[in-house]
Design goal:
The protein is mostly helical. The protein has helices at 2-19, 24-40, 45-51, 56-88, 93-96, 98-109, 113-128, 134-147, 178-184, 190-196, 203-223, and strands spanning 158-161, 166-169. The protein has a two-stranded antiparallel sheet. Helix 3 packs antiparallel against helix 4 and helix 7 packs antiparallel against helix 8 (134-147).
Length: 228
């Protein structure tokens, strides 16, 4: 039933996009709807983790169902957003507003690796021309690196580990200087970033755990190679 609901919304958005492609207000409203869809099921993940914290089997099953909804939504969203970018190029916040500009980024950030790689050059130019926040580009660079099996630069990418029942910071280069790299592109301190996620940054423990994390990362990439 949820899939039918999502497909109906997508068809309405897609048909309106091409019927009234030059209607700026309509475009902004469409991106507003897409932005809400992008976050709707993601915002329910922590509730599921908390609700089934004492039942790992049930938690895993519920999270799998939730991620299926998220992946379906992402796949539909990227079709519409790709059409917008292909038609207009990267639209700045001055052109469509902060929220709509952020939605363009979020949809590509949550897309498959092939789509991310396709739009990365466009987004690099957009960031250079101040049409995209440098911090947003940094998050995408990290995510692409993670999906490609490489180490991230700014430490933005974490993954939920069902074995430990907590978030794991995915492999990053030179953890000792992560704050310097983050400051260079306008991101806040790493400690503050992780505190918002309920994580205490223990760099020495992270470096000790890194070989194990790297092995886990390799297994994830191998398992999801066809997807990415």
């Amino acid at each position: 039933m949820k899939f039918i609901y999502l497909s109906t919304i997508f068809l309405l958005l897609y048909s309106k996009l091409f019927c009234q492609i030059n209607d700026k207000d309509l475009l902004i409203r469409q991106l507003d709807t897409i932005g809400k869809l992008d976050q709707m099921y993601r915002n329910q993940l922590d509730q599921i983790r908390i609700k089934f914290a004492n039942d790992s089997v049930k938690q895993k099953a519920e999270l799998q169902k939730q991620f299926k909804l998220i992946n379906t939504t992402d796949s539909l969203n990227v079709i519409t957003v790709s059409a917008i970018i292909n038609q207009y190029g990267w639209l700045s916040a001055d052109e469509i507003g902060e929220d709509a500009n952020s939605t363009l980024f979020l949809v590509i950030q949550h897309a498959d690796l092939k789509t991310q790689e396709k739009y990365l050059p466009i987004m690099r130019i957009a960031a250079k021309n101040k049409k995209l926040n440098a911090t947003s580009l940094a998050l995408l660079e990290d995510r692409i690196a993670m999906f490609q099996g490489r180490k991230q630069i700014y430490g933005s990418q974490l993954a939920w580990n069902v074995q430990t029942n907590k978030y794991t910071i995915m492999p990053m280069i030179d953890p000792d200087h992560v704050d310097t790299r983050r400051a260079d592109i306008g991101l806040g301190s790493y400690t503050a970033y992780l505190i918002e996620l309920g994580i205490v940054w223990d760099i020495e423990q992270y470096k000790k755990d890194l070989p194990q994390i790297e092995e886990w990362h390799k297994k994830i990439i191998s398992k999801n190679k066809s997807k990415y």
